[in-house]
Amino acid sequence: MKINKKVVEEIMVFLSRYYPSQHASLVTGSHVEGTNNEFSDIDVIVFTKDRNTVFNEMVLFRSLKLQTIIIPVQNLQEILWVDYISGQGTFVNMISKGHILFDESDFLKYLIPHTKELELLGAKPLSDYENYMARVKITSLLFDVMGAGDIDEFLYTILHLIDLVTQFKLKAGGSWCSDGKYRMKLIKALDENFYHRLTAATAEIYGNKNRELLVDLTTELLEEYGGLLPYYSKSNTLSKVSEDYLVVELDTDSNIERINHTIQILEEFIQNSAQHKKIKYYFFSSKPVIRDKAEQNIYLVIDTQKEFINNFLIDHLELFLSGQSNISRLLFPFQYDPVYRFSGMKIYDRLAPVFYGISKQMTAEKARFSNTSYQIQFAVHFLKEAKKIWFEEQPDMFCPFLQYLFDCWFVFTYDDGLSFKTKELLDSRKMNLEKFETLYEGQKETLLNSYNSKSIIDKSVLTTMKKSIQIHEVKDIPTYKAYLAPRDLSEMDKKCWSLYREIIFKTFSILFIDNRLISYIPFVVKKIESND
């Protein structure tokens, strides 16, 4: 570490004053690398369990200019996954180079080595579709620059072209692409000759308005990966997948009949297609990407061979839907990875039959996906069965496990991402906890009767659940994923708890339980188990 010890002491004072409930924190960036200058700010990452949104703020504390980045531990998997698929590597890079400031739960002890491994592995390789689309965009910009009468009028186009060219060079070469000064450092490390040619071409086009060097460099780069693409053909690679699954997004609204009709139409299509190839599938709900949309979207995951998806399924789904009316807007192939939460395909493949079975039960009757009573009954039964299967030898650990689930998920209830004021969040947390208490008191008798009744879960689902305790690949789950687990758990138990959490979270999403309400289920089951 090259950062000044006195600076670290000042940062610790800042954190104790403004982030006393932090989960962990580190300092990173130029001050750690020893490349800082008088204009450099100090990058501090604060990990929290009490927020649901990533945000950053510039703070002047005493003589320190602090760039503070707040990361919810609950969202870290998604953040690292986006880093991987986008190739940016921003968070991977910052965390891997971090110097630990506070880490009482050993969270960073496991996270930093994991991000160092990710950094060495590199970003997600470009798919055929991504290669194709990058070449289309670069070719279009290149032709604009080549045909420009007045170079000065194409300043932004040139900047955009250089941005895409450098991204493509790095991603195609298996490197992270990052941005700003870090991107040029990566370019130089990957191909020093390309780096010098690029800087020379940039100087030439801005200094002498000579585009020739940039045009030659760009053309040569594209030729290496398939050549210029002066046209755009959707039939080429736009509707292709690179893995053995197809994800369809249903853009939902408050029209329950239309949503239900759309689900039935999709199931009809799958049944027809299953005559040609083995197909498994499940529906689930998730928060939408659009922040101001209240309803959760519904997604369909179809697991089958990618060749069958690309050569048959996508085209036939488009044709099938063209003759349908009164259905939700559908988007496919939708970029969603159903595997990453389970740390690899082997674990996912072992657990997927649970999801297929639960989804089949949910869609077996028309109104189940919108039936709150059925959703809650199924959910509490699922937790009861989880106790029998996963905690058979340690039943006294079931209530701590339920508290762990609540601690991980309650933030989804009280933090809508619209407020950054601590007092407002604390008030919202207190208010929603009181709502849970009131709601439970009103439902207590019904919930008790439901919990103690015969399980409504299909036996085949329970059989597959029992096999989950025999998944040897659990040992390969990164330990950081067990955030908020009790410190006294063994490392293996922490990994198991993190996997159980993901299984339950996926199950509740298949039950179409809103993310903002999933913490209510472990809340009530713990009440019942504790005879509260």
UniProtKB/TrEMBL annotation:
Name of the protein in question: Polymerase nucleotidyl transferase domain-containing protein
Locate the coiled-coil region(s) and give their ranges.
none
Write down the CDD domains for this protein, in alphabetical order: NT_KNTase_like
The organism encoding this protein is: Flavobacterium limi
Q: Where is the signal peptide?
A: none
Q: Which Gene3D superfamilies match?
A: Beta Polymerase, domain 2
Residues annotated as domain Polymerase nucleotidyl transferase: 19-53
- In terms of domain of life, where is this protein from? Bacteria
